[in-house]
Amino acid sequence: MTQYKLRSYQGITPKVGEKVYIDPSAVLVGDITIGDDASIWPLVAARGDVNKITIGARTNVQDGTVLHVTRKSEHYPDGFPLAIGEDVTIGHKCMLHGCTLGSRILVGMGAIIMDGAVVQDDVFIGAGTLVPPNKVLESGYLYVGNPMKKSRPLKESEINFLKQSAVNYLQLKDEYLADMAD
Questions:
Q1: Rounded to whole angstroms, how far apart are CA atoms 147 and 165?
Q2: Model-level pTM?
Q3: What CATH number labels 6-181?
C-alpha cells in the first residue's frame, strides 16, 4: 500500500522503482527517478523542477536532506542536474545541489555539495564538509572540512563499510515496508 504522495511539476511526476520506501513526510516534486530498493526518509525535500534528479538503486537519503538542481541557461546549457549513484548513504540534513555522485559513497551528516561538483566512487565525505562548486573528489579518499580538503586514503575496512552502510539501510527500509503492509 502506497502511503506517500508524488507531486507533478509541469506534467512530470517522479518515477519510483521497485521496493522503494518513501516516508510520508518527504516531498518529491517533478523530474525525479528513484532506483529499486532505495529509501527516502522523513522530511527529505527533492525538487526536480528546473532540471532532473536521479537516485540510484539501494541508495538512502536520510532525514532532513535537501536535493535540488540548477536550471539550464546561456552560461550552463545543461544546467546542473543532480545524479546520485548506487549504494550511496546520504546522512541526515545534507544539501546536494546540482552535483554528481558516483556509487558507494558516504556523505556525512550536514554536508553540502554544490553545483558541478563530481564525487567519484568509493568516497567518504565527513560530517559538515562543504564541497565547493566544480570540485572533483577522487575515488578512495576521505574528504573533510569547510571548504573540503582531501584528508587521507581510505582503509580497506572503510571501503568495505561503504557498501555495508547501504546494506544496513536496505534492511531498515524492508522493515519499514513490512510494517506498512500490516
A1: 25
A2: 0.96
A3: 2.160.10.10
